Write the structure tokens for this entry.
Amino acid sequence: MLEFVICPGYVDTSMMLAIEEGKASGQAQQLRAKTMENVPMKRYAKPEEIANLVLFLASDASSYITGSQYVIDVGLLA
């Protein structure tokens, strides 16, 4: 059985916007801008970028990969 863990960083989704709005009501965009100051690529991931990793792991191209963790956070934890 293959096991993978995908650990995304900040992703530009409605869920992320709701979290930002919950932390800084009415100032979500300001919080996002401040957060991006600490993100090496200065942007949030697109959902498609996370999906591409999932598609790769589900494909035959990853047939020799097992039991791994994939941090996909533009270097935030580096």
In short: The first helix runs from residue 14 to 23. The chain has three helices and two strands. The first strand starts at residue 4 and ends at 8.
